[in-house]
Amino acid sequence: MQNLSRSFLVSVSLIALAATSASAASTQLRKALSSKPRKPAKPAPAAAAVHSDPERITVHSDLQSATGVTGATPGGGMMPPQTAPKSRSGLTRDYIAKQSPTSNPTTMIASLPGVVTGSGDPLGTSDQQVSLSVRGLNQFELGYTYEGIPAADPLNFFIFTGTTADNENIQSLSLSQGSADISAPLYNAVGGQLSETLRDPSHKAGGLLNLAYGSYALNREFARIDSGDIGHSGIRSFVSFSYEGADNWRGSGRTTRYHVDGKALKEWGEGNRASFILSYNSPTGYYLKTPSMAQWNALGTKANYAANFKSGGASYYKFQENQRNSLILGAPVHLNLSHSLTADITPYYDYFWGYGDGGTTLPTGYSYVGNQNTGPLQVSQSGSSVIGAAIDTFTERNSGLNSAIHWKTQHNTLSFGYWYSYYTQQEHSYYAEADGNGNIASMTGRYPIMTQAGIPLSRYNINFVQQTNALFINDTFKALNDRLTIEAGFKEAMVSRMSTQLIRGANYKSTVNYAEPLPQFAASYRITPHDQIYINGSTGFRAPSSILTMADYFSTSTGKIAHSRASNLSPEYSIGEEIGYRHTGLVNISAALFNYNLTNRQLSSTVYLNGVATTASINAGGQTSRGAELELGLRPWHHFSPYLSGQYLHATIDNNLASGGDLLPTKGKTAVNTPTFSGTIGLAYDNGSIFGNFNLNYVGSQYATFMNDQKIPSYFTGNVTLGYRMKSYRFVKPPQIQLNLINLGNNGYLSGASSLVGNAKATKGVYGTNIAAQTPLYYVGGGFAGVVSVTAGF
């Protein structure tokens, strides 16, 4: 491992040296060209990508593709130019289109600086058990928008990126590490913002077909139809459908996914545009077992749920079935009201429904609903216990309107905005009896186990309502021929929550209100047309996650409280500062230093209640994070585009954490899920016919306990793309064949902590109490997979 790390650092040095040499070479080339008369340049084709700068380096791209690849973005599509006075990275079609068609945004951003992604599935077919962090802040602290619509789970904040667009329809991905845009409709983005944009419909009628097959009996079919411009209406649209099915890469079970994307767009006048978008997703899959360290060391990737009911009992894999259906609707509108006044309005509606199940064993002679003894269970089998499925059903509705108006003068742009959101969630637990073969009559709880009292056996029946109001004002001032930019803004986010628990004996109603001031400041200066420096200060907050945070629930076998509603509902709050530098040209460089101070750090952890994976929120007190990140990318040069990114992070816990009636001595310990170093080396090649990508990712070791007494080892992952693009033939746009090799040479690794705990070893508390050991559980990173896909446009 030391040799690999050393090789990685040497490679960083070599690429940096190459970048310096390339820059010097371009200067020499400029001098040579300027001393000789030059012939007039031929006009670039309409489809060509053209880039020109004072160094007189011009790139003309005649690349023709049906997938949207242009071959013009530095770093093989991983480093589009940025000008925001904050750290921001991105991906374009040059990179996205060359990933496996099964991949999702969570896996695609894994190579960007500061990002650590541990996918539980090499194909990306499931996003239910994925670990993701940015600068050591996990995905529950990362805001996620899709065409300006908040797209993460509105309460758990889990980023289900499979619910949004298919790979073929994603135009770009943008990641702001550390701070969200002040206008973004988010209230959890203390760790930054991931933004996804959908492609615009084509002006010409046509379509795209993609067929993919691969490891684990994968088969995927995708079809898209573009209407083209509809008469003289100025409206154009597209709709797409995809089906995907694959076996679990470890253990038993098969995942399926049905998905629809659609967009209608009208543009008129000077920059006015209005669109309507739709994304529907229906996946069915099975949770994979998250092993303890002892189970991993003993069994490795064989630590799975049982393939057979007779031998597995409650650990039978079919009891782990889950489904999260979604419908996302939105209508982003941009209006030019006058030469100095513009407006942005985005109404939206999100609907999520489904279930998550797990195996369990129940005593039949007695039962409790809440704290009430409800007598023996009404089951068909005799015996002292019965095996069945613990079922968690949910329905979520999230509607809202985000709006802003912008007034531009000679030097200033003043913006005012308002965001309103109304969110409801109903979550109910049931139990269902398994027959002699392990079959469940309904995995959605339509035929629940009843008690002698004639009511369904249940742990909780929760109704949750949340309203969000946010107001912001922001001013951008430009001077010195727009070389100096100063931004200052203020946002007030107000969140009101009410939760009711209908189970007997539980606290019926809980309410909490938050009103958080969120000021921001940023400044940037363009030293030259190619060089920019910036500084910024930002704030962010996040309310505690999980519907169970505000509710009591009871054991069905004892009638005692298994979980009490949280007594500390203080929101997480962050204050961050950055200083950064960018250079654009043949060689592109982005570097930044950052510092964050967090209070009431809210960590989301998975706990298993009667076999069902449930999200719980842990108040981890204060945290200080400091670090540096670097990103390098070369514009296509002789068809090659290398890329490099890396991050150094030092994150510490600021206080001792409560454990029972004592405190764990955690002050000064390294924060959980924060590898000291992570980085990527990438290389892309595309000559118009032959193309390929290679990415090698390294993630350092990271702790899974607050006492730093158990950690995940460091690991490498590597992905390769190889492809050939043919010439157009009649009405068929350039067909291509592509091979993606995912997690090359790796058959599984621990990629992140699923269940965080205070200590994995017995520990003496600050006040002398012996604090018993707990057992953290881990996500297993996906093994090797290969995918072959054939694509053609028309």
From TrEMBL:
GO (cellular component) term, any one: cell outer membrane
Key words of the record: Cell outer membrane, Ion transport, Iron, Iron transport, Membrane, Receptor, Signal, TonB box, Transmembrane, Transmembrane beta strand, Transport
Chain spans, region Disordered: 33-89
Signal peptide annotation: 1-24
Entry's localization field: Cell outer membrane
A Pfam family of this chain: Plug
Domain TonB-dependent receptor-like beta-barrel per the UniProt entry, residue ranges: 285-744
Membrane topology listed for this record: Multi-pass membrane protein
Residue stretches making up the TonB-dependent receptor plug domain: 82-181
InterPro entries documented for this protein: Beta-barrel_TonB, Beta-barrel_TonB_sf, Plug_dom, TonB-dep_rcpt-like
Gene Ontology MF term list: siderophore uptake transmembrane transporter activity
Family designation: Belongs to the TonB-dependent receptor family.
UniProt name for this protein: TonB-dependent receptor plug domain-containing protein
Lineage of producing organism: Bacteria, Pseudomonadati, Pseudomonadota, Alphaproteobacteria, Acetobacterales
